[in-house]
Write a structure and sequence with these properties.
The complex is a heterotrimer. Chain A is α+β, with helices and mostly antiparallel strands. Helix content of chain A is 18%, strand content 15%. Chain A has two domains: 5-75, Ubiquitin-like (UB roll); 86-223, Alpha-Beta Plaits (2-Layer Sandwich). Chain A has a five-stranded mixed β-sheet with strand order 2-1-5-3-4, with no helix packed on it. A three-stranded antiparallel β-sheet of chain A has the order 6-7-10, with no helix packed on it. Chain A starts with a strand and ends in a 16-residue tail after the last helix. Chain B is built from 24 helices and 14 strands. In chain B, α8 (170-180) crosses α11. Chain B is globular. The N and C termini of chain B lie far apart (54 Å). The mean pLDDT of chain B is 95. Helices cover 29% and strands 20% of the residues of chain C. Classes of the chains: A alpha+beta, B alpha/beta, C alpha/beta. Chains in contact: A-B, A-C, B-C. Chain A binds chain B through residues 43, 45-48, 51, 58, 60, 63, 65, 82, 85-86, 89-90, 92-93, 123-124, 126, 148, 163, 165-174, 177-179, and chain B through 26-29, 31-32, 34-36, 300, 317, 322, 324, 459-468, 470-475, 478, 495, 502, 505-508, 542.
Amino acid sequence: MADNEFTIDEQPVPFKPGQTILEAAKTAGIYIPHLCYNSEFKAHGGCKMCTVLVNGRTQTACTHKAAAGQELDVNTPELDATRRSLVQMLFIEGNHFCPGCEKSGNCQLQALGYEYEMMSPHFVELYPHREVDASHLDVVIDFNRCILCELCVRASRDVDHKEVFAIAGRGLDARLIINSPTGKLGDSAFAITDRAARVCPVGAIFVKGIGFKTPIGERTYDCESISAEADSCEVPETT
Amino acid sequence: MREIQEESDWISPEIEREVAEGLGIPVTRVQSVVQFYSFLYDKPPGRYRILFSDNITDRMLGSSALLEHMLKRLKLRRGQTSPDGAVSVDLTSCTGMCDQGPAILVNNFAVTRLTPRRIDEICELIRIGAPVAEWSSDFFRVDDNIRRSETLLTHLEPGVALDAAIACGRQGMLDEIKRSKLRGRGGAGFPTGTKLEGARNAPGAEKYIVCNADEGEPGTFKDRVLLNSYAVRVLEGMAIAGFAVGSTKGFVYLRGEYRHLLDKLQAEIELMREERRLGTAIRGCAGFDFDIEIHMGAGGYICGEGTALVESLEGKPGRPRVRPPSMVQVGYLGKPTIVDNVETLAHISEIAVEGGASFAKRGTHTSTGTKLISISGDCERPGVYEYRFGVTVSRVLEDCGARAVTAVQIGGASGVCLTPDEFSRRIAFEDVSTAGAFMIFGPDRDLFDAAHNFAHFFAHESCGFCTPCRVGTAIQRNIMDKIAEGRGSRYEVNDLMRLADFMKKNSHCGLGETAGNAVRDTLNKFRPAFERRLHARDFVPAIDLETALEPARRITGRDDADAHLVTEA
Amino acid sequence: MSINGSRKVKVRLATTSLAGCFGCHMSFLDIDERLFELAELAEFDRSPLTDIKHCGPCDIALIEGGVCNTDNVHVVRELRANTKILVGVGACAINGGLPALRNRLKIDDILDRGYRDPVSGEPCIPNSPELPLALDKVYPVNEIVRVDYSLPGCPPSGDAIWKFLKDLILGRMPRLDYELLHYD
């Protein structure tokens, strides 16, 4: 084993010093599922979709640095079952009504459900009471669909330098809050040109006026599974 | 935020805004903090905030009936603030008074040994608006209940340990700690010497020693006793750790539920400064500078996790960090930080005086020294017991006067449930590992109730950062509720086992990893306790259908046969 | 069935739509001429297609729609009691679907708002004992009875239904290829 190599499912994979497992895998064209990861921002490690086995122990690939000689399990039936369960948990936690959602077909949560053959959410639906905030001129936030990935939090803080979003509350009460006098998006510093406006992997933050433009059958994940899609860190636009 | 709240009872939106403006940060950061901690309120909780400790040991002592009694007297529903803004009553996680419960917190001060009479007296004091500071001091009496001591729970003359450490020298002291094979007493059991050495070797001059006095694990109250009566050992132990590591600043992170210890500890620190046992040139040793600041918690079990504690110390919500890097490399404010349990630091004062080799002679080969056990539940003599590592569970049970024991929950809600056939096992890191919690269940106890209580605990305390724990603990709690209501089936029992395993493998931190332990152990060892509650059918609807029809029955005024549904037999 | 298994016994199929739009049933009919093949393999018991009102013993029951009232509960219980395999078909059966959008509201508020005399404004909520009574929420089928398999879609396409059903009838674990698996 060279000192810039580790193995994924018994195949040697090169890495550059300082890369995380996810980065090295991506460079090598190996897909590891993820939701809260975006190469532009600091890794979060919360959604747990990128969980892999490193020398037999579970780690999140997005935060764990690659090291020479590591033995990784990435594609196993057990890990696939874990991924499916995570998607199921996210589905029952919010109110994810795909047929009526502007992001359907371009949604990464949905695409992961398809990838890991989620046939039903299995667990009892929580049906939480959540709001829709359409106060902003250009953008809607539907909190029913938020998966707490904090991509908007990181984008707004680190790229837009506006810190419009934050997470408040503990446990299942955790939710996205908005930095504005009323707590709604309309009187915040948020703008449609913000990086945070285009970073949501699901249908929680979306631009008004362009929903359902692309016919069923021609949307991103109609054409290609999320594992096959070239750069699945680029979040498909809602169309 | 805690101090602001002490002034104004709760944190209003106006206050949130003022704080944000004053610090030059978005108001959302302030809201994030306020909404994370159980003891910070953004709605008025009343001038008297009553919180009932809701550990299974409190319930075993009758806390539920006392709660009902108080709610009735005050004409309140649980969680509701009285219309005149005077009082609110709610539940809170274990407050660490398991040996003298049932207990409540009144404006964060512990009131112990509740009886119906005491409740009546308190209600009367609330009615007349008597300031809490003027209530009978007997209400607030917290006894040590030390039942057995060996070497740690002994008087240490102030300054003796410091002098011994100075005589040893910094490297020598570090060597002694390594020689002692001291391991962390907060539950994880990491070799302290290795940890201290790692911090000592880490680059930079700014390093921190943090004493983890969060003691949130249900059933644990041994640190409460150390801080109350052996503060010299703890605080001098911290200074000695600082000496070995090259750190000049220490924090004591004291859980909000131990507010009653704050003034006493603060006075102890003041005295230490006056006597040159803290500050600069300690005990006349040039270069040995160390000072200690106390930081109060605000209700959050997760803050007992090392990285979450440091986040909390930095003024943020207590969400555990991604590791690596470890605290030893990147900790408080990004600097090398040692987070050690109260008892671990206290042992350092022992090692300074007697040397590492002598310390290592006690206990077992891999678990050296002594361990404090906090015993509660069904026994004659609850309290704190000090034993050498390697003591058997049966010996402990004999000493505390426990008979006809059904089970012992060791290590708290996240620990293990042992049955009589396992009582020959030993308290040690290599066998039954624990930070000290030891809850005893006697002959008539139903272990399902304990598992149910713990399931609520974890769902309440989950920080919410990661999917498996945030959603998993909620699902687990909901299923346990369903079974408790008599509407459970084998279908759910299968799910419980899978969930416990799922959370163990995929959670971000130890809370999620251990959240399913108690449920899984109880299922494995007390399955009939579950099965007796299960419905005969192997599937029962998620909701009670009769209750689900109640709103429509009410609004239509129907009561005919077709307006009712029963669960199938 | 003879010892060497040569004589085929037709599978008995039941179907129903609970709180559904019947779109899944319409989509089922999109199997078009494959209906002839199905007729060789299966017979229908209770179904809107046969108009048989009560279910006898059957092998596979396809349930469209979620559970929103007492009638839905009785129907789904009858099917569960009489079938060996129960399949939740479509978004509504699987997670409540569109009708479950009412779950954020209180049913008594909905009924009160929905049934008021247009002239007098007085509430006039229908309360005949012949009417099914609404549950507080719309529930997925798997929260009322045990569901064996789920076939998602809104609706699942005729191709998806055909693949799934054929798998079940022939004893295979039902699976959908990527193109056939949709939640919308």
